[in-house]
Amino acid sequence: MYVIELALRMSPVPVSVQRKEHGDAEALYQQIRQALEQGQPRMLELTCEKVEGKKVTVLISEVLAVQLYEKTAATGGSKRPGFSFDS
User: Fold this and answer.
1) Angstrom distances, CA of residue 75 to CA of 23, 55, 59
2) Where are the domains of the chain?
3) What is the pLDDT of residue 85?
4) Which of 12, 27, 46, 87 has the maximum number of C-beta atoms within 10 A of its C-beta?
5) Does the pTM exceed 0.85?
6) Which residues have C-beta within 8 Å of that of residue 65, sequence separation ≥ 6?
């Protein structure tokens, strides 16, 4: 399972969605990066493959960073890589 995580302006909690395949995760990561670079589309709707029906729409101008990482059993309930503020 791969996690695409977004850090949003003025939000201490990141937004994340998951993809089963690395290729799908990489494609979504690149789509978000392109939207950040171009400012288009203005809003981006993301869906989660793990939780069916889970959707979120973000305003691209509020996205500060995006990261992609593999969710493994070792990182299951422990500290996430990257944007985590936990010690």
Assistant:
1) 21, 23, 29
2) 2-72
3) 52
4) 46
5) no
6) 6, 7, 83
Task: Tell me if 81 sits within 8 A of 67, measured CB to CB.
Answer: yes
Name the pairing type of β-strands 2-8 and 15-19: antiparallel
Dump pLDDT digits (tens) for 24-66. Answer: 999 999 999 999 999 888 999 998 887 888 888 999 999 999 9
- Confidence tier at 74 by pLDDT (50, 70, 90): low
Range 49-56, long-range pairs (CB < 8 A, 24+ positions): 49/17, 49/18, 49/19, 49/20, 49/24, 50/1, 50/18, 50/20, 51/18, 54/17, 56/15, 56/17
